[in-house]
Model the fold of this input.
Amino acid sequence: MEGYERIRVLLADDHRILREALRMLLAAECEVVAEAADGEQAVAIAAQLKPHVVVMDIGMPGIGGLAAAHRIAKEAPATKVLMLSQFDDEEYVLEALADAGAAGYLVKTDASAELLSAVRAVHSGRRYLSPTIAPIVLARLRNGATAKTSRAATPTRREREVLKLIAEGATTKEVANRLGIGVKTAQAHRDNLKQKLELHSTAAMVRYAIKHKLIRID
Done:
C-alpha cells in the first residue's frame, strides 16, 4: 500500500535461531532493522537507530533485558520495548512494566500466535500483555500494584532463594540444579538481583545476605 510505513523493529535475543524465527513471524508488516545478542548491544543499537519497537528477551548476557529496557526508555524514549520472556511469573511482568518501562510483555509460548499483534499494540501506544498472564496481572494493576513502593527494591521469594545460594558459594549452574531451574533462568535471576539491589559483585551479595539474615555465620 502506498504511503504505508512498516514498523521498524530491533530484535534482541542471545539465540540466533530464535531471532530468525521472530524475523519470519514479523515479515508481513515489519522491517527488522537490526539484531542484538545481548543487553548492552541492544541499548547501543536502539540509541543509534531509534526503532519503533524493540522485541527483547528478558534473560540475556550482560546487563539483562530489564536493565536494558530501563536504559532504552531513557536513551530512546520514543522506542517501545516489548519484553519477550519464558517467565510467566507476575512479579517479572510487573517489574518489566512498572520499573523497567516496557510497553508490553509476551510469554514465549504465546509468541507464534501473538507476536505481530503485540508489536502492533505497543507501536500504537497501547500496553500489551500475553493472554496467559493478562487476567492475573490486570487484577494486580487495578489494585495499584504498580505504584513505585519499596517492592521495587525487595527481592521476590525466588530471588531470595537464588541470593542465599550465591552467598553460600554456589555457582550459577549449581543454583540451577539446586532449585530445579534452567541455567539461563538462574543467570537471569542473578542479573535482576544485581540491578534491583545494586549488588555488583558476589561479595556485595554475601554482605546483603548476611545483613538480611538470609544466611548465618557462626
Summary: The chain has ten helices and six strands.
